[in-house]
Design a protein that fits this description.
By secondary structure, this protein is α+β, with helices and mostly antiparallel strands. The chain is 42% helix and 19% strand. The chain is built from six helices and nine strands, in the order E-E-E-E-H-H-H-H-E-E-E-E-H-E-H. The chain has helices at 35-45, 52-63, 70-79, 87-99, 143-153, 169-194; strands at residues 7-11, 14-19, 22-24, 30-32, 103-106, 114-117, 124-128, 134-137, 163-166. It has a four-stranded antiparallel sheet with strand order 1-2-3-4, with no helix packed on it. It has a three-stranded mixed sheet with strand order 8-7-9, with no helix packed on it. It has a two-stranded antiparallel ribbon with strand order 5-6. A hairpin with a 2-residue loop joins strand 1 (7-11) and strand 2. Helix 2 packs across helix 4. The longest helix has 26 residues, at 169-194.
Length: 196
């Protein structure tokens, strides 16, 4: 439910509904739709050229597990000698892929934006405020938030993003150890001062 690709288009007198990568025809026979088909339609509908480089970038993103930044994507693209893709092409294509919701951009309060493939990928994020570690969790019940937002605004909620910020177990343990060490140091200083 994280990001639902939902729109109705009229195609050769047939209405087609696209939801989360499945194309349902009027006769209700489901057919898979691929990220390439979504991009192809988006490019055509918005007057962009269909270049092999754009599809190459999309394919690389779909193969990538988890979050990545532009630099990591550029490194992965350079490993494959199939196409020589410029930095400008990558940035422009990322903008297009974000607009058509095949890729989602995350700003986790870090120096660089993170991205991830958004095709059939439903999850939320928990971010550590100390070390920046990001965990993905699935199954967070968000229906109540969607219903509340719809009730308050009248919007038909199609998608949402949820970021939960906190402190990871490793940082909690590290801070507890630091506090314990600080407490021991304070006691040693007090003992030293009292023995003078």
């Amino acid at each position: 439910k994280s990001l639902i690709l939902f729109f109705i288009v009229k195609k050769k007198s047939k209405f087609v509904a696209k939801i989360k990568g499945i194309m349902l025809h009027k006769n209700n026979e489901p057919q898979e739709i691929t990220p390439r088909e979504i991009l192809k339609k988006y490019l055509k509908d918005n007057g962009y050229r269909k270049t092999p480089e754009r599809f190459f970038i999309l394919d690389e993103i779909c193969k990538t597990q988890g979050h990545f930044d532009i630099e990591q994507l550029l490194q992965n693209l350079k490993k494959n000698k199939k196409y020589c893709v410029s930095r400008a092409t990558v940035y422009n294509t990322m903008e297009i892929l974000t607009q058509c919701r095949l890729v989602v951009r995350h700003d986790f309060d870090t120096a660089r934006a993170s991205y991830e493939c958004n095709f059939n990928n439903s999850h939320e994020h928990v971010v550590c405020l100390y070390c920046g570690k990001i965990e993905e969790i699935q199954g967070v019940p968000t229906e109540t938030a969607d219903e509340y937002a719809k009730e308050k605004t009248g919007f038909n909620i199609l998608s949402h993003r949820l970021y939960l910020y906190g402190v990871c177990p490793e940082c909690m343990e590290k801070r507890a150890n630091e506090q314990e060490q600080s407490s021991v140091n304070n006691e040693e200083e007090e003992d030293f001062e009292s023995n003078k």
